[in-house]
Write a structure and sequence with these properties.
Length: 270
């Protein structure tokens, strides 16, 4: 298993500090948000910023921490294909092999068309599309995501599982039976509290109040056991109790404790 650091875990880190933070935490890679979207101002627009891209590539080479994935390609009722194309160019320039896409399009047929186009274009850049379902998006559950991927029917489009979203959407590791390694782009892991928030509070939990693996009540042991060999892992765990630490120290703590958790279960990615 490889373990990368998801940008959300240290979302307040300056873009230039993200790769050093991943290196400090002993991560095998790092995920980068290349579109700022509605994130706080410290998430910079990377697409089109050649100087920043060069800085990140140099850091990646110097520290031995590759950019594993980029996000987020948000598919709405319409998509800006030129913007997505620029995002794919940036992904390739950073060396990313995967991207994260989410859907806020209420029409499944239109989503299939948009995702199919993205998968085809991404393939020309050597980037694989990962589709993530989120309970408070328009693609809420694992069955919905699998149905869309089946309709797209493109080997360059695969599934992203987030342990928190699987739980909060009513799913469980047993729902993953029958999936192969090729069905996954990657899997995001975090733990969570036993009490499930009201639907309107799910975004706040996901973005600011997760727990590190082993600190909560999710079935992470069963989830890891259900995954085929070779599926990459990403730690996406913004933890309130660690939020006062500088991003580098937070990443160091999160990386150490997650590796300890995995090592105790025979899954140390080192």
């Amino acid at each position: 298993m490889s373990l990368s650091l998801a940008h959300l875990t240290v979302l307040d880190a300056r873009t230039e500090d993200l790769i050093p933070a991943a290196a400090a935490g002993g991560f095998d890679g790092v995920g980068v948000r290349i579109f700022p979207g509605s994130n706080p101002p410290y998430v910079r627009q990377i697409v089109g910023d050649r100087a920043l891209i060069s800085t990140l590539v140099a850091q990646s080479d110097d520290l031995g921490v590759p950019v594993t994935d980029v996000e987020s390609f948000v598919i709405g009722e319409s998509i800006d294909r030129d913007r997505f194309e620029a995002g794919l160019e940036t992904a390739a320039a950073l060396g990313a092999k995967r991207l994260l896409a989410v859907s806020y399009d209420p029409q499944p047929d239109r989503l299939v068309d948009s995702l199919g186009w993205l998968a085809q274009r991404a393939a020309t850049y050597g980037v694989r599309v990962g589709l993530e379902f989120i309970p408070y998006s328009q693609l809420r559950t694992l069955p919905e995501a699998l149905a869309v991927l089946a309709a797209v029917d493109d080997a360059n489009a695969a599934l992203i599982i987030d342990s928190l979203h699987l739980s909060r959407s009513g799913g469980s590791p047993g729902d993953l039976a029958g999936l192969t390694a090729q069905d996954y782009a990657f899997v995001q892991i975090s733990d969570a509290r036993a009490e499930i928030p009201w639907r309107e509070d799910l975004p706040a939990e996901a973005r600011t109040d997760r727990l590190l693996p082993g600190d909560g009540t999710l079935w992470l042991d069963a989830l890891l056991a259900a995954l085929p060999a070779g599926v990459p892992l990403s730690l996406e765990a913004p933890v309130q109790e660690l939020s006062a630490l500088p991003p580098l120290e937070r990443a160091r703590t999160a990386g150490r404790r997650t590796r300890e958790y995995l090592a105790a279960r025979g899954g140390d990615p080192a």
